[in-house]
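Quick start: read one record
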Amino acid sequence: MADEVETSSFDTRFASYRVKKPAAEKALLSSILQHGIRDPLQGVDTKNGRILLDGFKRYRCAGRLSIAIVPYRSLGSDEASGIIELIRIANVKNINILEQAILIEELKTVYKMSISEIAGLLEKSKGWVGMRAGLIKEMSECVLNKIFSGQFPAYSFMYTLRKFIRMNSIKKEEVDEFVKSVSGKNLSIRDIGMLAHSYFSGSVEFRRQIRNGNISWGLNFLKENPQDTTECTKLEWEMLKTLEIIQKYIHRVTCKSKDNRLKSNSFFAQANLLAGAILKQMDNFGKAMEQFYDKSGQT
């Protein structure tokens, strides 16, 4: 059962460990304005105070709306056990792989927990934990900051830059230059993939243009010269685009389905049929996504 606590009581030291998503936060702000905060914030109640671990978007929205009291659920009495519990419910709470990685790194470095110990507590394999533990070491502070500030998509690092770095032995400094050049431009995963391929394997002039901020020029050039644009096949790009669309609309439906302005009998009659058809596919869809997630995470 959730408690009601003051927002001023939270220690937010872990805020930088969660990826910011401006668009999602904007939608959440609108939802909270209409319906209030539905899901409890989560953290740990230590002897030195209440430390927030999950719900930073809700926390920031509460501050913007001058909400002084919020629902809250405790995950334990110390940071380590709270982090473990948070990662355990990651599939439900939508904590991405890099957020898992940085929290596991915290358990290793600050709380001196071994891979085996963390794996046992999470009921995961040592390989699952070890892969995430190694991710942070592959990233520079610059790349971490850009991803966790919401300026560069985690997916693009995981499945474009990381793969390209391993194949071509690109230095971290070069990756930093590219990431800084394209961050905060609202580029799609496909556009970043196209730019990365030509940036690291194309001409010196192309690299110079991107470093100088000529992103539109770069994209137009690549679209006019498709033979040089991608490390993925057409089918793979189509799958990436489909995943982007699914992610976008899952969030949209989650927010809009709670809107009290949806109330006509005609709407609900049609929506019920569609929702029923979707629910029938959810089990198979969930299993397919889990299998695809595990398969893509092993590359």
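The mean pLDDT is 88.
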